[in-house]
Each structure stands twice: as structure tokens, then as C-alpha cells.
Amino acid sequence: MSGTPERNEFSVVASESGPRPPDGLEASRNDFPLEIRDSSRLNFLIEVVRSLPTAVTVQDEQGNFVFVNAAAVAQFNVPARDIVGTVSGAPLPSKELNDRINLARGVLQSGGSRISEEYIRTDHATKIFLTTHEPVVISNRKLVLSSSVDISRQKAVEEELFRCAYYDELTGLPTRRVIEQHANSLIREGEHSVRFAVAFLDIDNFKHINDYYGHASGDGLLIEVARRLDLGLRATDMLSRISGDEFLLLLNPVQSDAELAEYIEFLLQRLKAPFFIDGSELFASASIGVSIYPDHGDTYEVLRQNADTAMYQIKNDTKGGAAIFDSGMQHEALTRMKIEQSLRLAILDKRFCCAFQPKVDIRTEQIKGIEALVRLRNDDGIIQAPGTFVDLAIELGLIDELTHLVLAEIMRSIDLIDDAFGTDVSISINVAAKQAGNVVFMTSFARALEKTGCATRFIVEVTEDAFVAKTRFQTEILPVLRRLGVKISIDDFGIGYSSLSALADITADEIKIDRSFIVDIHKRPRSQGILKAIESLGDALGMAVIAEGVEKFEELAYLQAATRIKYAQGFYFSEPVFLENIEPGKPAVSKRGTSSDSRSVQENRSVYSRANGYSR
């Protein structure tokens, strides 16, 4: 301020001790006149305000600073002498202080208080203050009293909470909530004049990648997929990771279906290029389902569901492709939903039974063992083969319950099994690769096998995925089964993900060669070479080799004449049979060449009903 201060006017800086009594007065406070004692009280109050941890400033009608306390000096990081007492109208040394001058004038002009967040930059960081600006009148003077609180830490916590709630931690992409809100806002604001697409993307076989290369590489792949998908997106588009290996794209606007299809195909090709993660070269593909607003739905939820339906359609058909939703897919989705419901009810009602297919010594024609094959009885008494429900049971997480039901059915039928096949035959039961790596399930299943009292008769058949994937099957589960005397079989060998290094660690008892290598083996030289290699591998590792799917005499003749394979299984010897259909005194195995027609009749025969039902 300029000029000589009037009575009651003050100009104070943080480094000063406040107003002083006039020169020549006595030091004793009791000898002071009243106004001098008031001045001392003012001095005391100024000292209190100066020492407050809250930043306090006072500005006059022109916005000039007439008081700053120590906390305010620290807040602006400017010496007090450069804030208070400068010539009116002269610029102050920081942008934030000059902004305060304009703000103070606005507060006095409006006559109302104001609260603002102030971002003040220092040499090391930017701090955030919550400041209240209050117009006051003191000694007939209009002033602005401002107080600030440092909320930097609080804002950092809020930012972190916001980021966790709305952004994916791994990829940094928005979550499903963000993309949902964005889509809903487009629908509200654009009505039906806007067209945008929702693309649901799922990485194919991600579990195998995760299991084989490890979760760190799986996470690295997700990050790289997100980066590739994000490349080239327009400012109006949005990419979100909604869960696991699933992403959602909102493409806005969509000019034409052809343009959309071309762009989706471009994304598919971009994802098929190799990924280099932690020194490994990974290959991936994705299945994409697309729905368009307003053609395929007038709400975000309907659009997402329809894109999801289209994605599963393409995933079930071919994988690695894309499909735009149509009404036919909706019908298929409803049909699938009914099947799911039917399966859940069937498990609840225990409407399952077993058919048994022998494993035969191809030279002596003696039965070595039998494989239990689960069948579902629908409400009409029709038997359904496992191809219609096992994969769905795995997908829905119902396969564990189903496997326990199969074991319970085997034990309910153990006397009939012994009568039909003999007391020394082994009994094979299938366990999905996903189950084999599940320690909780396999532990409970091992206990159930032990409780049968005949665990040594059982062979657990698992696909080679269970051995090759980085699961706990070999390290934790296999020793438990070995202690019980349960044998292990590698099912469908040759069509999975085996490598020689992985097979070297396997301690299975038998290898079942997949039927694809056996079909017309007598006239397929390349398959013959592969068969001999597998045979040699089985010999080297001490595992019995079983040929699956033998249906023709010529196939059997080749196995007998040109290989050392001892055992086979297939329709040539016997279809899967129900115990109640085996006539007493007749052999359970009769050689025959079976056509696909006779096979379907067998699968649809009526189920055997037992009065006591099933039990766990």
C-alpha cells in the first residue's frame, strides 16, 4: 500500500512481529491508554493468525495483499516482502498470486463467498489447495479474507480410488463401467440419428498360453493386445478391458456396415502377427462379435449381450474370426440357454447313466478293461451322447459334480460290471484337463476313489494338456493317485499340445492314440509312420499303447500285422453298451463292422432305470 496508513489500517508481513506502540510510551502495559492496549491485543491476534497452519491472506478492494501469514508464504513459495507492500497494480512474482488479485476483485464485486481449488506449482511438485474466499468489512473497509488447506494427499488418494474404479490396473484401459456410461450418453444425446458399434473381443486359447508360458507372459500378452487394439482409434472411439482376456470396443460413428467389417478384419489380422513377450515368440488370435446401434438394440446392455452372442457364435464355429449379430444368433442363444437350464436340472436330478466300452487285446480278444462313458437321459427317456453336454458342463463349471456322479454310478453298478466283464478288468473314468489341474477337485476325487475300496481298478484318463500345461497335476495330484494305486492314461494322444520335453516327465501308464490316426490306417503311409513313432515312444517310456476308434477289419488287420500295439478300442469290437442290455451267458464283445446308422440307434436306446436312484 502507498501513503501513510490511517488509524485501524495495517500492513503486515509474515516475517514481522506486527504493529508496535508509538515511540516514547512506557513499557508497562497498565500505563498504556485504551487504544494502545487495543493495539497490543491486535498484535496478539495477528501473531496467532500468523502462526496458524492454515494459509491466510487478506486483500483490499484493489486486490492488493495487505496480510499473509507464514503458511501462505510457504503455500506460494514467494518471500513475504514480495507479496505485501508492493506498489498497487504492479505484477506479483507468480501467476497464482496475480490470479488471486483478479479473484478478490470478483468476490468483492459479487458480494458472495467463493470456494476454489488452486494448483500451485513449486520446484518439486504441484500442490493442490482448497481455498475459501470470504468478503468481509473491517473498520469500514471492504476486504477479502482467504484461507487455504493443502488437500494434495487427499486428491492423490481420490485419484487412485478413481483410477482403480474406472481404469484397468494391468492395461490402463477404461473399465466396463466407463464404456457403459459413454454408450448410454451417446444413446441419450444422439437419439436414433447416431450409429455406433459395440465389438466384443475374446482372445482364443488364452488359458493354454497362460498355462504354458506362465501368468507373467499372459499379462504381457494382454498389455500388447491392448496396445495393438488402441492403435489408430479415433478420438470418438473407446477401448475397454472388461475382464480377463475380454475387451470391448465402442466405434463411433459407423458410416456403413462394409466400412465396419473392413476395420474389424484389419484388427483380426493385426492381432495374428507374432508377439514377443519376455524373450518368447507368442502367436494369438481373437474372436470378435459386433452389434450396431440402433439396428441390434436400443440400450447398451442389449447391444453388449448381442455382441457377446455373435462372438460366441464365431468362437464355437471357427475361432479367429468375426461376426455381426443377426436375429438367428439370438434364437441359437435362447436354445443354448435352454440346454444350460436342462443340464443344470439333470445334474440336480442325477439323470445320468453310464455306457461301457471295452478295451480289447487285439490278439487274444480278451477284455483288458472298460471305459465308462457318461450319458444324459432327457425328460423323454432319450439317451444323449456326451458331445451334446460335456463341453457345456466344463464351461458352466458343472463338470466336477458330473464326474462325481459318474463315479457313483459306476459303484452302483459294480456287481453288474463284474458279472459282464470280470472282476479283474480295469475301469477307466474321464477327467477333463481343467479338472486335472484343480487341486481342490482332484483331492476330493481321490478321496472318493479311495472310499470305493477298489481304487487299484481305476484308470483316470486325462488329455495331454493336463501334463504339458504348467499346472500342479504332476507335482501334487499325480503322487496322491499313485499312492492309491490308481493308474493314469493319456487320452486323445497326438492332437493336443505335447512336446517331447514334456512327455519325458510323464509317468502315465498308457497312451490312447486318437482315432484321427487310426482311420483308414491301412492306406495312409504318413499316419503309419506317426503310429510307429508313437508306438516306439510308448515302449521307451514304459507305457501301454491303445488304438482308439477301430471300426473296420482292415484297420484291425493292419494293427495286428504291422505294429506291436497290443490293445484297441472301438466300434469294431463293441459299441458303448449299457449293462442291462448284456444278455447273461453271451460275451460282452462281439466283432463287427459298425456303421454310423447302427451307432445312432444304440445311442438313442432307452435308459436303464434303477429303483434306488443314484448316490454320491
Automatic annotation (TrEMBL):
Domain EAL positions: 336-590
Top-level taxon of the source organism: Bacteria
Coiled-coil residues: none
Residues covered by the PAS domain: 41-85
Biased composition (Polar residues): 592-616
Disordered: annotated span: 1-31, 585-616
Domain GGDEF: 194-327
NCBIfam families noted in UniProt: GGDEF (TIGR00254)
Protein name (record): Diguanylate cyclase
Organism field: Nitrobacter vulgaris
